[in-house]
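Memo subject: From amino acid sequence to discrete backbone structure tokens
Action wanted: Derive the backbone structure tokens from the amino acid sequence.
How to read it: Take the token row as a discrete description of the fold.
Attached in line: The record itself begins immediately under this heading.
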Amino acid sequence: MKPEQKFLEDLKEYFKTTPKEKILEAWEESKEFDKVGPTVDEFLSYIKERYKIKHQDPYRSYNFKFETKETRKDFGFFYC
């Protein structure tokens, strides 16, 4: 079994066997980490703006074009 498959299975087992109250308690303890890094929306906007996919031919491949901008934003764990 691949490590990512084992992780997923372990995670499923955790949520199946752990009481909801304990999960919520653990979630509350991790609140301080909610403000680390970009939000999902910020990250997806970054990807959408920076990487453009131009469809060339449906039976061939895609042309990935990297576009840079003058302004860059620091998201903490990566700088763009």
